[in-house]
Amino acid sequence: MASVRLVALKAPYVPSSLRNLSNFLLLRTHAFTVRDFSTAMSPPSTAVIYDQYGPPDSVTRIVEFSPVELKETDVCVKMLAAPINPSDINRIEGVYPVRPQLPSVGGYEGVGEVHSLGSSVKDFSPGDWVIPSPPTSGTWQTYVVKDQSVWHKIDKGTPIEYAASITVNPLTALKMLEDFASLKAGDAIVQNGATSIVGQCIIQLARNQGIHSINIIRDRAGSDEVKEKLTKLGANQVFTESQLEVKNVKALLADDIPEPALGFNCVGGNAASLVLKFLRQGGTMVTYGGMSKKPITVSTSSFIFKDLSLRGFWLQQWMTSDKAKECRKMIDYLLSLVREGKLTYEMELTPFSDFHAAMDKALGKLGSQPKQVIKF
Ligand SMILES: NC(=O)c1ccc[n+]([C@@H]2O[C@H](COP(=O)([O-])OP(=O)(O)OC[C@H]3O[C@@H](n4cnc5c(N)ncnc54)[C@H](OP(=O)(O)O)[C@@H]3O)[C@@H](O)[C@H]2O)c1
């Protein structure tokens, strides 16, 4: 703790009761205050904040926060990496069902290294790698101070970009494969948005269980290359949307692939209709995202003659506090798959200093790009 206290001696004092962001911002203008030297303090933190909802490329800015005092059960974590997910963008836009209180620090998941501990923390040591689990708002900053109950220790042998991004998307893929149908080896699933991280995870988790995947991607220049990449991950069939402009999409199914009972939709619009067309009698389509921002249209005959079911999935809803244990077990399983080379997905690590360039890529300004993960 000695080095932390040294920092604290020189730093402005911020009482723990004033830890919320608006108070930080106010305190940044206050004079230094005398304090108790025995209290552990965090280092100052550099953070991406937004004080109004709107386009993330214009409402986010980088600020410096004063050190904060660690309460007895707090853990101060030096962040190593955190991804930019579509839901982070939606939160900043103010269109997510849970609207963060403003001003707010961006980010929801990530990985960091334990820097210092409150006086009664026993289960962590400086240097441990931890992730917030379930995730928690405010990971886009260099130091995060939260109660010990927030943090889950993970194996340091995990590449940081995977440790940072293991919850929101891979866990969604795993949970959705388990929750909506009892699939067995030889069965098939169909999905759109197959290039997304969730999509790439669904392909691999299905393959690991002997389940076939039928994948739909947007038309683009270089679609053959994308198809090849997904096939290498274990995709059985990959179609562009335009390839599916045929009367009977099921005629395109390979001989060894049965009609799927389960479909996943993260796009909406025509891409959702294509998932429905592949489903077998009594099949289910689970919607978990709406990347095209277009509504889903379902034909009357899909209900009457195919008796299809439409369901939805929201990870944040499931990860309520009583699910923390289950959630952490699943995370450990997913991280072990990563370390064994059985789960991989495309990401780009971008230095924190280039945050706005990473955000532009995440916003799709440069066309389809790998998942952006900020490296602190
Ligand atoms: N419900 C939940 O609990 C939950 C949890 C996790 C994720 N999600 C949702 O799952 C989806 C995928 O997330 P992710 O982080 O895995 O994605 P990602 O890796 O950031 O990739 C974005 C995906 O969206 C596609 N896309 C982007 N703009 C599009 C548009 N205008 N029309 C159609 N497709 C578009 C991209 O396709 P291209 O390759 O063609 O660019 C790519 O497949 C998002 O909607 C996210 O909000 C939901």
UniProtKB/TrEMBL annotation:
Sections of the chain in a coiled coil: none
Keywords noted in UniProt: Fatty acid biosynthesis, Fatty acid metabolism, Lipid biosynthesis, Lipid metabolism, Mitochondrion, NADP, Oxidoreductase, Transit peptide
Organism, scientific name: Actinidia chinensis var. chinensis
Localization per Swiss-Prot or TrEMBL: Mitochondrion
EC number: 1.3.1.104
Reactions catalysed, as given in the entry: a 2,3-saturated acyl-[ACP] + NADP(+) = a (2E)-enoyl-[ACP] + NADPH + H(+)
Entries under SUPFAM superfamilies matching the protein: GroES-like, NAD(P)-binding Rossmann-fold domains
Entry-linked CDD domains: ETR
Alphabetical list of InterPro entries matching this protein: ADH-like_C, ADH-like_N, ER, GroES-like_sf, Mito_Enoyl-ACP_Reductase, NAD(P)-bd_dom_sf
Keyword DNA-binding listed: no
GO cellular component, one term: mitochondrion
Domain Enoyl reductase (ER): 54-374
Molecular function via GO: enoyl-[acyl-carrier-protein] reductase (NADPH) activity
Domain of life: Eukaryota
Single GO biological process annotation from the record: fatty acid biosynthetic process
Enzyme class: oxidoreductase
Claim: NADP is one of the keywords in the record: yes
Name of the protein in its database record: Enoyl-[acyl-carrier-protein] reductase, mitochondrial
Family label: Belongs to the zinc-containing alcohol dehydrogenase family. Quinone oxidoreductase subfamily.
